[in-house]
Structures
1.
Amino acid sequence: MYTLLSGFWKYVFQKDEYCVLILGLDNAGKTTFLEQTKMKFCKTFKSMNLSKVTTTVGLNIGTIDVSGVRLMFWDLGGQEELQSLWDKYYAECHGLIYVVDSVDEERLPESRQAFDKMISSETLEGVPLLLLVNKQDVEGCLSVPEIKTSFGESAPKIGKRDCLLQPCSALTGNGVNEGIEWMVKCVVRNIHRPPSSLWKTKKEQPIGSEYPAHVLCQDINKTHRNQCDHGSPLQLVVFV
């Protein structure tokens, strides 16, 4: 009886869960974007001083509830030596956010190279892509049309998927809401990747674990967990 009632409760009240990767070069503003997102969508969340956010070594994890669904974010380090870990997270992500630093023109070719390698993965075929042109609040930054031109040769690699080029400032919050709300609509309507609760690979997750199997194999000491307070523990049960 308990099992039956528990299953019914989950069916009625449990939110569909979608996993979103936040990728880009180091210092592009990925973690600041994640912190800003949690501040905007989690009323009880108190963020760190955004001007003092440091470069991520490993990953940051965050979750928000919006429009009746739960988004779980994986903010991965963007240093060159960490980019080789990105593809370990591709198989079951529902959405991609790629952050471009519109101030650091010198590293733009490097950013595009990392983007091309990422988006060329067959594992990510059809996954919605939000391309964030960050730091638009900084005087002298590259404009959105300039970034679009710089990434123009990458267009064929993007293929048939939902894609949005969104100007934003992770520091001030401009453009963050628009990007997140767009992503929610895209992951919900993408029938090729159903919400986490329906994925058959859920059964492969170790019971009671809050991290996916491949994360458990990594050095957790280098992993910084960051979540909003929803009144219950964050359960990550999808990635393999």
2.
Amino acid sequence: MQNDMRQGEPIMFEDGTLGFEFYGPNGFRPVEFGNLLQDIEGENEKQFRKAVTEYILNNRNRWPFPGPSRPFTVLDELEGDEPDPFDLEVGDYRRRFRNLGCRIMRYVTEHFYLVGEYDAEAIMAFVVATYFKEVFDHMPRLIIRGASNSGKSKLLEFLGNVCYRGFLDADITGPSLFRLIENTGITPLLDEVQDYNRDQRRDIKMIFKNGQKKNGHVTRSIKTDEDYKIVTYSVYAPMAIVNQSGGIIDDTENNRSVTIRMINSGRRRIPMRPDFDELRCIRTELYTLRAIWRTYPRYLDMDRAFRETIGKLEAEEGIWSDVTGTAVTVSTRARDMAGTLLTIAGWTGTFGPILEILRDQETATRSSETDSEDGMTFRALLHCIMQIDHQNDIKMHRKIYVGAESVSTRQIAEEYNTILIEDGESSSIYQKVPTRAVTNRLIDLGFKIDDRKMAGNLSRLSRIGFEDIFASNLERFGTEEEKEFFHNILEHDRC
């Protein structure tokens, strides 16, 4: 930095970023923190930390809301009451993250009755993620389920105390939520969403789905004097909901969420009141770590940690868990959520437990996919192949298509309806799924129809690419017994 420049007071630019005024021969020029940090060393850095802390304390109530050009934090009105609450000494930030993670997990373990083995780790990871959403491409959702009087709302109140700009509400309209997320960067925490009216539930489901990804948005038309104006809202945000009895959130979205199931604590002694002093300390440390990340990005290289996690998910078929001593395979659908959670796990020393959460998620996903319409369609095809007289030919020729080529889509549809009846989903011939619908689902699964063998509802599957398409769907929808039956055949056919 030039010697003829003299440091002035901390200032706030119009776009909400922070910096100093520097005075020189030609008056003053503002210097943003990002440029300033490249020049300061030693004693100046200590003065810088002190100045930042004082500025935060003196201006916390008028700090502008964050946005694309305003990344800095609006502090909670309860923050900054202590003489110097913000420890901006970087030091070993991973140790600070680990200590913070342990502190959050200890609090939730003492104040809530959690039945899941790794529920405390899941809640901790969600809380930490709310403070660093700009790092990630995906924000996980937390679904809290349980019967009445099981502590769901109490857990949501805890999240409101410690999440980044936690916004707790039990009855809010969609348009209000759109604006709050875009203009103030809140973390929506919605209680008893199953009691919302139809319009509210539709808007919440839209935010729940679209707001997971960084570029997520919703579009609305607003009536002006004589016309309609199209408005787009950015709704990228972490989100937690209490969803009693289920139903409002689709299975496809459950796959991208972490579910906490709660039950009544019974006679277990759970503290009646929150420990507000401990909550304040947790919240202050979270805000401080965010401030360090914003002002010292070269020290807290979180982007690099996130990229390394994504690279590991892309390169490895399974990630080793030191908790169970086995590998965890993360499906394509869950990789976005896994990237966020595993990065936080690396900071907080909870990699093994978070991997086990993802393993449980994969198990639940496979179960729901098997029972989905696509899953039942493929199961119907499998049943038809395994039941026909050509099983011996399949084993002899080591070709699955030898069995599939003699099965018509009408037969597959009949088997599909049989599965529905066996599962209790249908009890009448008038509720049968038509052949055309099953044929379209087979096409959606990647199978091709052989035009040369089409005759009414007696269409048959094409040989083109059949083995690869079959193997992909078998891995996704097949049971262990079905995979074992077809595994050797597929391996032989590829040799």
